[in-house]
């Protein structure tokens, strides 16, 4: 499974042309997600999750996309998070079905929702900051968690020069308090876009609201 992040012309037919090009190299498209519209220059940023049959080189995906006029590949990597088009809605459905666990559910679902590798809930409401919950593949933070709190609003974070984090891109959002924060990380990129920060902020606020009804 591979994740392609593309800049494409924001006009009818562009996405279909890309899908046709990928089909010509035997790529099986699992999900397409419009990440951001850039109306100032008439382009859009799309994430496409694809699978390749045995024997087909991954480089052919990039070549196929680059062969489409106006399309630029800005990120390409193996993808193991298992996300898809409807992950936001699935996360909301799970939270509403179990309000008392809404925040824990968001932490667990955040990597799939944002096409990321890991997520962790940092809790400093009792004074000392601790990792209250984490998904698999979350790196060791050590004392680094202190520098991320308090956090007033959802934002990207600068990755510290620390083993396991130095090549990561990070985004975070407060939950219930500026000292209770969800941090989500991607190893190596791509950078989190403003639209993704906004999505995380929305889901974080929704999780807190749902949790309050429990």
UniProtKB/TrEMBL annotation:
PROSITE patterns xref list: ACT (PS51671)
Segments crossing the lipid bilayer: none
InterPro entries linked to this entry: ACT-like_dom_sf (IPR045865), ACT_dom (IPR002912)
Residues annotated as domain ACT: 3-76
Protein name, entry field: Amino acid-binding protein
Species this protein is from: Kribbella lupini
């Amino acid at each position: 499974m591979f994740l392609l992040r593309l800049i494409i012309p924001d006009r009818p037919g562009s996405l279909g042309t890309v899908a046709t090009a990928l089909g010509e190299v035997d790529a099986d498209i699992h999900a397409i997600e419009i990440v951001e519209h850039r109306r100032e220059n008439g382009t859009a940023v799309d994430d496409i999750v694809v699978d390749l049959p045995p024997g087909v080189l991954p480089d052919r995906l990039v070549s196929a996309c680059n062969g489409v006029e106006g399309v630029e590949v800005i990120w390409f990597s193996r993808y193991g998070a298992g996300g898809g088009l409807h992950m936001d809605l699935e996360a909301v459905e799970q939270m509403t079905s179990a309000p008392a666990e809404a925040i824990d559910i968001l932490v667990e679902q955040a990597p799939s929702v944002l096409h990321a590798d890991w997520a962790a809930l940092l809790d400093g409401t009792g004074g000392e900051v601790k990792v209250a919950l984490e998904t698999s593949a979350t790196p060791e933070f050590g004392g680094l968690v202190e520098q991320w709190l308090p956090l007033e609003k959802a934002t990207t974070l600068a990755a510290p020069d620390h083993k396991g984090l130095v090549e990561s891109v990070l985004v975070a959002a407060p939950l219930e308090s500026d000292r209770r924060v969800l941090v989500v990380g991607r190893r190596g990129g791509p950078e989190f876009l403003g639209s993704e920060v906004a999505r995380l902020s929305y889901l974080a606020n929704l999780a807190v609201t749902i949790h309050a009804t429990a």
